[in-house]
Structures are given as C-alpha cells and as structure tokens.
Amino acid sequence: MTIDWSQHRILIFAPHPDDETLGCGGLMNRAKAAGAEVYVQFMTVGDTADVSPRGFSTANERYAEIKEVADHFRWDGWDIAFPGDEYHLKLDALPRFELANAVERNSPVSIAAIEPTVVIAPHRTSYNQDHQVTAEAVHTALRPSDNRKRHHPAAVLAYEEAADQWRYGPAESPGLMVELDEADMEAKLAGMRLYGTQIHEHPHTRSEPTLRSLAVLRGMQAGVALAEGFHTMRLLA
Q1: Reduced DSSP (H G I as helix, E B as strand, rest coil) percent helix, strand, coil of the chain, to 5
Q2: Count of domains observed in the chain
Q3: Alpha-carbon dihedral angle through residues 53, 58, 63, 68, given to the nearest 10 degrees
Q4: CA 37, CA 56: separation in Å to the nearest integer?
Q5: How are strands ordered across the β-sheet holding 118-122?
Q6: Helix (H/G/I), strand (E/B), else coil: 44
Q7: Angstrom distance (rounded) from CA 11 to CA 40
Q8: What is the CATH number of the domain that holds 151?
Q9: Element (H, E) at 177
Q10: What are the φ and ψ backbone dihedral angles of 82, each rounded to 5 degrees?
Q11: Which residues have a Cβ under 8 Å from the Cβ of 70 and sit 6 or more positions away?
C-alpha cells in the first residue's frame, strides 16, 4: 500500500516536547516534503529533572526548543494544552473529561479545529503516566459515532518509542511500517538534536544510535532499509 501524503492533514499528539520527533520524526519529514499539513498538539511542558550538572531544564528552555523544532519540520501549527508544573508529569491527576475535551474541541489544534485525515498518538503501553492518559484521551475523543455529525479521521495510529519496548511479556510489533529514506532519518536525528535538553548519549532510549537502530529493525521487518512503525486503531480505505 502506498500512501499519498500530499493529500493528508496530520495531527500528532505528543505528551511532552520531543515525543513527536521520537515517534514520528521521519514520517513528518516525508509527509511535509510531499505537501502534507502537519500539526502537533503537545499536552504539557514544565521544568524537567535531568542528568545535567544543574539537574533540571526549565519550561522556557523547552519552549525555545519547540520553536526550533517547529521551524525544522515546517509544522503548520502547534499548541500546548496544559502548560506548567502543575500539569507536567501529573496529567493522570486530571479528569479524563478535561483531557478528552482538550483533544477533541478545546484547543486551537484540536480534532474539531483541524479536521485531520490522520491522527497519531502515543501508545497506551508506555510506562509514562502522561503518555498513558494522552493515549486514552485520544481514544475517547475519537470514539465511534456518526461521521456526519463528528469528524472521523480515516487513519488513527499510535507511534512507538524505544522506551515503550520495556514491559512485561512479549511486545506487540507495529503493523504499519512507513518507509524512510536517509534524508528522512537524518531529519529525524537533526530534530532530536534540537531538543538539546532531552537527547542523551548512548546507551539511552533517546540517543541517536537507539533511534537509528529502531528504524533499521522496522525497515528490516518491512523489507526496506529504514522505517518507522505504527499501530493502527482505525484505517478506513
């Protein structure tokens, strides 16, 4: 199956700044090069503990990184639904109603506002609580209903991150592989480098060798050199 990305309007949900690049950096570059529209809804951002000498990165530093990454990937729009330390890494304390409404209609880049043809969210199996509730909020917002009354994207996908592979039992492999060329891979790595507070040296789940290794693995499984893997929740042909 070949997807003509030029015909699509893509909305990606990222619990935190960098998740969209980790999971979809190659696809974003490929789709934008074809002429697609790409929007990113960040759920939250705040001061973040890290392993730097200072021990944390500030929300302002992360805002600056978002702006650079947005220019790099040429996004058509982005927004942060719940900014601030009172929400960052605490989204599981919010009522599902509030999260689902932000995703569905209460944001400038909500599903109702953008009417995307493709929605991509994190996978529910992540160990991170913000990822889990973001995935569930998107699932709720895209519940089955009359598509004459509520927008129904034709494709609803979940992206993967290397950290998601750390779980009990066998990991379910993604069923949809998006082929990347070397330019897509390099754009993904360059985007991650712009998240200077978040990228790490190897071995780490957010290192360049990890990102390339996962792309090589998914490419091998699809019979190509490089790919990103996605789980399908809905795919209307």
Answers
A1: 40, 20, 40
A2: 1
A3: -10
A4: 34
A5: 77-80, 37-42, 9-14, 118-122, 155-159, 226-235, 176-180
A6: coil
A7: 6
A8: 3.40.50.10320
A9: strand 176-180
A10: -135, 75
A11: 40, 78
Return the closest-CA partner of residue 131 out of 104, 109, 153, 163: 163
165 Ramachandran zone, left/alpha/beta (phi>0; psi -120 to 50): alpha
By residue count, the chain amounts to: 237
Q: What is the pTM of this model?
A: 0.96
State the Cα angle at 23 between 62 and 161, rounded to 5°: 100
Residue range 85-123, pLDDT digits in tens: 999 999 999 999 999 999 999 999 999 999 999 999 999
Which structural domain, as residue segments, surrounds residue 74? 5-235
**Among residues 49, 78, 34, 26, which one has the least CA distance to residue 185?**
26
Q: What is the CA radius of gyration of the chain?
A: 17
Q: What are phi and psi of 229, to 5 degrees?
A: -100, 145
What are the residues facing 80 on neighbouring strands?
42
DSSP string, 97-141: HHHHHHHHTSSTTSHHHH--SEEEEE-TT-S-HHHHHHHHHHHHH
CA distances from 60 to 46, 48, 104, 157 (A): 8, 11, 27, 30
Taking only the tens place, the pLDDT of each residue in 126-174 is 999 999 999 999 999 999 988 888 999 999 999 999 998 887 777 788 9
d(CA 19, CA 170): 23
Q: Is 73 within 8 Å of 38 (Cβ atoms)?
A: yes
